[in-house]
Amino acid sequence: MNVTQDLSFLSLITNAHLIVQLIMALLFGISLTSWTYIFRKMYAVRAARRQTIEFEKTFWAGGNLHALHQNAGKDRANSGALARIFEAGMGEFIKGKASYGSRDALDVGAVLDGARRAMRAAFQREMDALESHLAFLASVGSVSPYIGLLGTVWGIMNAFRGLANVQQATLAAVAPGIAEALIATAIGLFAAIPAVVAYNRFSHDIDRLAIRFESFVEEFSNILQRQSR
To answer: Which residue among 55, 183, 198, 210 is least enclosed by CB atoms within 10 Å?
Structure first.
């Protein structure tokens, strides 16, 4: 056991046992990856919310649906999730009507069902994209404290093994080793707490977006039904 009276954060890490240092390095890597996903998800959710609001304003302004469909299809990557859901439904509706040739042969129910299924499929794709990496944040929040605790237990075991060769065990002798071990738990909590907070926040925001998407699908289906009569 390396006994040192320098209890600075850097010194505690460099003087820790090799196994504890490896656990710390793992937690640092997990934390860095977690923060990367947090910032990426923060940008994605904010962009999705902004694009949804913009598309809703344009849609409910009462413009021509065919023109709106063409505009949404021109730049699908940047049009937003709701615009892509609309584009999928409107595109399937147009194809369905064209396949029947004449209005007398039009099966309104089949056309509307096809448009609704297309919007549901697009909805699932958009939700899958928005929810990507959330499972990783949840895993980091639940597992990181235990990984840090493993490093702490190992470090304390190593510290007490080192005291076996010391004739008189004093607080000054055991404190550095225990402090080195506790750093692992601190790093584990540092990785876990932001991940848990971000997961809960993003889950709430994505659920609210999902409600808006589902409401739009139902409302747009009613509009298509009225136009088919």
So the answer is: 210
User: What number of helices (H) and strands (E) belong to the chain?
Assistant: 8, 0
Place of tokens 């932001």: 194
Phi and psi torsions of 107, nearest 5°:
-95, 95
3-state secondary structure of 131: coil
The crossing angle, in degrees rounded to 10, of helices 171-228 and 18-59 is 20
The contacts found for 176-179 with CB under 8 angstroms, 24 or more apart, are 176/2, 176/3, 176/4, 176/5, 176/7, 176/12, 176/15, 177/1, 177/3, 179/7, 179/12
Per the CB < 8 A criterion, the answer to whether 214 and 86 are in contact is no
Cβ-based neighbour number of residue 11 at 10 Å: 16
Global confidence as pTM = 0.81
Residues 90-105 as b or e (16 or more Cβ within 10 Å = b):
bbbbeebbeeeeeeee
Q: What are the tens digits of pLDDT across the range 15-54?
A: 777 888 898 899 999 999 999 999 999 999 999 999 999 9
> 222 burial class (0-12, 13-18, 19+ CB within 10 angstroms)?
exposed
Quickly tell me which residue has 């990507």 as its tokens.
Answer: 132
CA 193/CA 92 separation, integer angstroms: 45
Per-residue pLDDT of 89-101, as tens digits, reads: 999 988 887 776 5
Q: At CA 111, angle to CA 51 and CA 106, rounded to 5? A: 140
* Rounded Cα–Cα distance for residues 229 and 226 (Å): 6
**Strand ranges inside 31-108, DSSP E:** none
d(CA 154, CA 180): 11
DSSP state of 165: G
